[in-house]
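Archive entry. Fields below.
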Amino acid sequence: MTASTTTLERRERDGLAAGEVTVLDLVDRLLGAGIVIHGDVTLAAADIDLVHLALSLVVGSVDAVGVDRRGPLRPREAER
Amino acid sequence: MTVYLYAICSADAPAPPWLAERGLRYVERSGLAAVVGDEPGDLTAPSEEDLWAHEQVVESLMDAHDLLPARFGGLLRSDEEVWSLLDERSAELRRALDNVRGAVELAVRAGWRAEPDRRGDARSTGSEYMADYASHDARARALAECLDDAVSALARDKSVRVLPRRLSAVTGAYLVDTPRVEDFRRRIERLNDELSDAEIVCTGPWPPYSFAGDASR
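PREDICTED_STRUCTURE:
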């Protein structure tokens, strides 16, 4: 792994289907994992509606991402 | 002035030469270094590009040395608050750094090639619904076991979720030693070829977001 093959570059290289999954995995990691700052310090992203953000990023790529294709997208189902 | 947190690493890890060029710097304390920069725009309504910008900084750092990636949106009020963070959580952060040393995270997502039969979803009785759920649950768990058999021996740590009511039936995060990454990928590809009803996709290597310590849960 080198700087010349970042996840974003691999996404572009591997094509759309892989890219759709990559975006879901990106959202899972950047918004659902990683070191969290808490206590007195600010967590700026704490108020973000993560479900709707994730949906806005992946909508249109539901085949690859596991969002139920039948009927409207419901926030509860979209939560991974 | 606020500072935005990208990652935490050992203070001994040499800062890559491009760090200052990108407006980033180390804030050091207790043998640890927080990699911080200026607040990158509006954090309350991030776009995909904003997430990739954070990710690319962390991936570039990961090429230079081991680190604990920070969740998107971590903003501190001052360097003093970074010192407090590193002081108060130094033991936890050091343990987490030891845990991920020399490894990367691979993401695995397994879903059904055809949508599971959900005839009973809309009109079934409660007991029918539960039986339907149980059969999908069993199927997803069997898929998770297949995955486990195929790759767990190659992983140092893992976090796997079974989601039987979704097309993505299983999602997993695996902490894999860097030299084993290609072997891991090949095993996923082989398993994907072998299974007729499920599709398995592996992405990464990612910074070890899912293994950054208790604080990430």
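CURATOR_NOTE: DSSP finds five helices and nine strands in chain B.
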